[in-house]
Model the fold of this input.
Amino acid sequence: MLSPTESAIIDWSEMTQLSPRETEVLQGIANGLTLEYIAFQLGISTRTVKYYTQEIKRKLNAPSNACAVARAMGQGIITVFIFEVESPVTSSR
Done:
């Protein structure tokens, strides 16, 4: 059994092989899309998207979608762009 220190230094990138379709599904999840919308975009059923989601979590050893996204980002499998929205400037009168 690995100690906490040893498990923290595992190179997950060598262990994880997501298919191109799994990567597309995970990218959609990372972008905040619903499973239904991902299915619509990819031309597949929602049930198939759910299957891919389970496989992604299994391959990444992730208990949740959020954890799968974080691990995939850490490995460079997906990229998430974060846009900052500037608040409107209010004039003082």
